[in-house]
Amino acid sequence: MAERTVPEGAVVLLEEVARSAPRLEPVPTGVPGLDDLFFVTEWSDGRPVQRPLGGIPRYSVLQVTGVSDTGKSLMAEQYALTQAARGETCCLVTLESPASFAALGLRQRAQAMGIDFEAVQERVVIVDGASHSVIAQDLPTLFDTLAHAIRTYRVRHVVIDSLTGLYEAREMLARDVVRPIFNFLKKWRQTALLISQKRSGHEAMTAEAAGGYAVGHILDGTLVLAKQAVLTQQQARLYGVPVGETVRLFRIDGCRLCGHDTSTHLMEITPTGLVRIGPRLSEIGKGGEDGG
């Protein structure tokens, strides 16, 4: 029987690692209404005071999950373009659409956001996993490709659209795929949004994704997007819209690195394809239920 050894560096004192701990700072998302839903707690006269962080925490790795047509990819595009406009390079790993089609979506989003598309192109790197299937099928190839992009272009942000494409048809292995990705992004000090597709049968506002086998707990937090058909007067009162409309909803399901709003909010996709987070449901409707 081989002698067991303690891995070097596995046991450390807090005072040693605290010196290298990252500072809590915000990364604006470019999604109106979202950034102030994350907060930090400060102490004044012995009492806790919440202060909006003004973005997602830098170095956080967040899941963005929802059924189709809830605005996940739109949110990711807004995030990527916002970082490029701020002068920080973002890498978009596209596993659903070939690079040229991803570029088309980014151009449309930039126009809607009032961002000069020509000025930000050199700060958005696209990894085309849709056209090169080995990237989606082999994690070492994905990591080598991402590491090359990060080193070459000084990438600080990563968007993967979609995470589900990395374990499609083998969902029981989802955790074995997501954990190495999480560890990789942490090692390279990236701030990341990982898009995941929910099955339509999953309850609308839960964090379960298409690979919903405890994937969410691996990551730093989850942004849950949903849509709800308004079929009753009770729902109409709750959501503040006529019967027959479809409303979109948003909720933050945990964030390890800072505090966050826990309410369910209305969410809008504008006619130009921009995602906006609206008011809490509690602010617009009284006495209804969220359900069918």
Core attributes:
27% strand; globular; Rossmann fold; single chain; 292 residues; 9 helices; alpha/beta; 3-stranded antiparallel β-sheet
Concise summary:
With about 290 residues, this protein is of the alpha/beta class. The chain is about 30% helix and about 25% strand.
Number of domains: 1
Number of strands: 14
Helix content: 25-40%
CATH topology: Rossmann fold
Computed over alpha carbons, the radius of gyration is 20 Å
Number of helices: 9
SSE topology string: HEEEEEHEHHEHHEHEEHEEEEH
For the record, the CATH class is: Alpha Beta
CATH architecture: 3-Layer(aba) Sandwich
Q: Give the overall average pLDDT.
A: 89
Query: Segments where pLDDT lies below 50 for 5+ residues?
Result: 209-213, 287-292
Shape: globular
CATH homologous superfamily annotation: P-loop containing nucleotide triphosphate hydrolases
Largest sheet: 9 strands, mixed
β-sheet strand percentage: 25-35%
Q: How far is it from the N-terminal to the C-terminal residue, by CA?
A: 59 Å
What is the topology, as strand order, of the major beta sheet?
7-6-8-9-5-10-11-13-14
